[in-house]
């Protein structure tokens, strides 16, 4: 009997998640269907209620509903609680379990696919919204030293304040980045959606620096800037997308798919 899953967002037409999970299912022999559903901006809770009523086993959540999904959950994993945002829901026994696989997906892509071990690395995380919330705890746990830069410094300070007892996450304005160098610079802002570049100073990349844009599909102003600035490695977020999907698939099915052939197939397309 086929188990049903979906990804919920607005907009959602661009999503590659159905193809990714179709490839995972074929690879693992799991009998699932997976579709994309656009929820009205004011109707997310009703959309989830409808899915549960129709017997769906779970779903992924994307922009702009990750914070709302967090509020809907009866139970939360530790990493979802740390992120205060949810991208994976599991429906079982009348409960809604929330998880956040974004951070695990990013770490897997950086460390396994790109060969960038984060222990003792200086990381600049740009942005303080849902995408940054979803990954900062995992970056911290991987041993990175983190600075958050955001146009609204108060938002960066709020995110950093969750780590004050550890003393290794700092918040700064972009102007304050002048003269500093980072091993890894991650664009978790929405700037690439609007074809803009965050106001990064020149010379931000350390020797052998890595630039990572969570957007994927085409070069962005950030990845172009990074290449001009001499970043040794420049990557989009397609690997993160595949890796976070594999983590969600594992949560749902108890089987961990091999991501390498799926990522390779998507790159070819």
Structure description:
The protein is 38% helix and 23% strand. The longest helix has 16 residues, at 238-253. It is built from ten helices and twelve strands. β7 (122-126), α6 (130-141) and β8 (145-149) form a beta-alpha-beta unit.
Shape: globular
Gyration radius, in Å = 18 Å
- Strand-pairing-aware structural class: alpha/beta
Which spans have pLDDT < 50 for at least 5 consecutive residues?
Answer: none
Number of strands: 12
Fraction of helical residues: 25-40%
Number of helices: 10
- Strand portion, in percent? 15-25%
Please provide the ordered H/E string of secondary-structure elements: EHEHEHEHEEHEHEHEEEHEHH
Mean of pLDDT:
95
Determine the N-to-C terminus distance: 31 Å
The strand order across the widest sheet is 2-1-3-5-6-4
Summarize the structure.
The chain is an alpha/beta fold and 269 residues long. Helix content is 38%, strand content 23%. It is built from ten helices and twelve strands.
């Amino acid at each position: 009997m086929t188990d049903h899953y979906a990804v919920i967002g607005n907009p959602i037409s661009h999503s590659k998640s159905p193809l990714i999970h179709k490839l995972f299912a074929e690879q693992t022999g799991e009998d699932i269907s997976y579709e994309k559903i656009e929820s009205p901006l004011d109707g997310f809770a009703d959309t989830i209620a409808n899915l549960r009523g129709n017997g769906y086993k779970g779903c992924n959540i994307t922009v702009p509903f990750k914070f709302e999904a967090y509020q809907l959950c009866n139970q939360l994993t530790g990493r979802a609680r740390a992120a205060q945002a949810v991208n994976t829901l599991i429906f079982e026994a009348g409960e809604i379990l929330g998880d956040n696989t974004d951070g695990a997906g990013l770490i897997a892509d950086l460390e396994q696919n790109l060969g960038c071990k984060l222990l003792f690395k200086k990381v600049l995380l740009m942005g303080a919204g849902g995408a940054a919330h979803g990954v900062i705890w995992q970056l911290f746990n991987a041993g990175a030293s983190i600075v958050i830069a955001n146009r609204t410094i108060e938002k960066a300070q709020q995110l950093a304040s969750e780590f004050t007892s550890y003393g290794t996450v700092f918040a700064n304005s972009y102007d304050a980045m002048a003269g500093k160098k980072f091993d890894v610079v991650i664009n978790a802002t929405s700037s690439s959606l609007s074809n803009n570049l965050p106001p990064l100073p020149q010379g931000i990349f350390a020797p052998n620096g890595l630039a990572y844009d969570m957007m994927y599909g085409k070069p962005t102003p950030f990845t172009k800037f990074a290449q001009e600035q001499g970043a040794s490695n420049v990557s989009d977020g397609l690997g993160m997308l595949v890796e976070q999907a594999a983590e969600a698939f594992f949560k749902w099915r108890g089987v961990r798919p091999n991501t390498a052939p799926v990522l390779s197939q998507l790159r070819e397309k």
